[in-house]
Amino acid sequence: MAQSKILVLVLAGGAGGRLELLTEQRAKPAVPFAGVYRLVDFPLSNCQHAGIADVWVAVQFHPTSLSQHLANGRPWDLDRTTGGLLTLPPFRGTDRGGWATGTADVLWRQADLVRDFDPDALVVVSADAVYKLDYRAVADEHRESGAEVTMVTTEVAADDAARYGIVQVDGDRVTDYAYKPDSPATTTATNEVFVFTPGATLDRLEALAADAGDDGLDDLGSQLLPAQTADGAARAHRFDGYWRDVGTVPAYWQAHMDFLADEPPLDLDDPAWRVSTRGGRHSAARLLPGASVEASLVSGGTRVAGAVHRSVLSPGVVVEAGATVTDSVLLPGARVRAGARVHRAVLDDGVDVGRGAVVGGDGDVTLVGLAARLDDGAEVPAGARHPEQG
């Protein structure tokens, strides 16, 4: 029996404003994670392990940062003569051209291309979460169900539920869908993985676009998913594994802390489901005399002479003698000078913390990025405290 023809559309064009400085100069899916990965590696690796060879990535904000990482798709076995990786930038020349205003608008603008491809199932995913999921298994289950959409769901914290699309479920049937409600009825959220029946969904999307008129379409959760739910055409696939949306700075920091546990929530090197990425050329990490490293992830190309505890060091990070880094995430090329202290912080690429400076504290996570332009470039000046204490 021939495998079903599955198309995966990765929505990678959002502005990512909730990640603040981390997305000032890069696309959200290109944000580094766990030292050597990028956020987009997770959906692409899911496609690789599911044996899905047709993957389209819709880009918009800071597309160069993402394109450089994707290259020809080789790390995820997507460098193919027929099929493989296709990048979809905004375009002009037809009545569907222009800047997309939301995730549903992206799908509407690419509807003709999807129809021409004629997949059996269309899987639409975001690129700002950390998880492992077999998209093919969910797509095959969806096709057998006869539903128009399958929403993959997970449980979220009650105080965080208003950030998501929230559903009520009877068995596997979705009886109610509310997009980012002020008062969520449940803590069962969609985890931004949707499997659509292409023809029926695109027909419905055309009708919704016509009704919207000049206002246009917004996100999938604004019009499309509520309409499918109201017609009894939506079902749920419950996902009980590890899933974390890292679209805010606190969530991004917490996800890194999750992976510093004695037993991380996901084995990123599991031979049966390894997370693939575009590798760089880095030497082995160097732990110099006097270095102390505990419960941390240390990438290749780093140099540590100070103390590092419960932290993630990306390639090229330097922690000088007498410096202390605790409960922090340092992105590529960050440098912590002698005697400096960094605690509960995220340092963006190339940030230089001067001698004796103090970054962070026991309160909210502190983010220091290139866009901050502190004193000389991104440097936190010697002896300074960031954020400043009043």
UniProtKB/TrEMBL annotation:
GO biological process, one term: glycogen biosynthetic process
Keyword Lipid biosynthesis attached: no
Lineage: superkingdom: Bacteria
Domain Glucose-1-phosphate adenylyltransferase/Bifunctional protein GlmU-like C-terminal hexapeptide: 293-362
Gene3D superfamilies reported for this sequence: Hexapeptide repeat proteins, Spore Coat Polysaccharide Biosynthesis Protein SpsA, Chain A
Domain Nucleotidyl transferase: 9-260
Any one GO molecular-function label of the UniProt entry: glucose-1-phosphate adenylyltransferase activity
Keyword line: Glycogen biosynthesis, Nucleotidyltransferase, Transferase
Keyword Nucleotidyltransferase: yes
Similarity remark: Belongs to the bacterial/plant glucose-1-phosphate adenylyltransferase family.
Name the record gives this protein: Glucose-1-phosphate adenylyltransferase
Organism: Klenkia marina
Biological classification of the source: Bacteria, Bacillati, Actinomycetota, Actinomycetes, Geodermatophilales
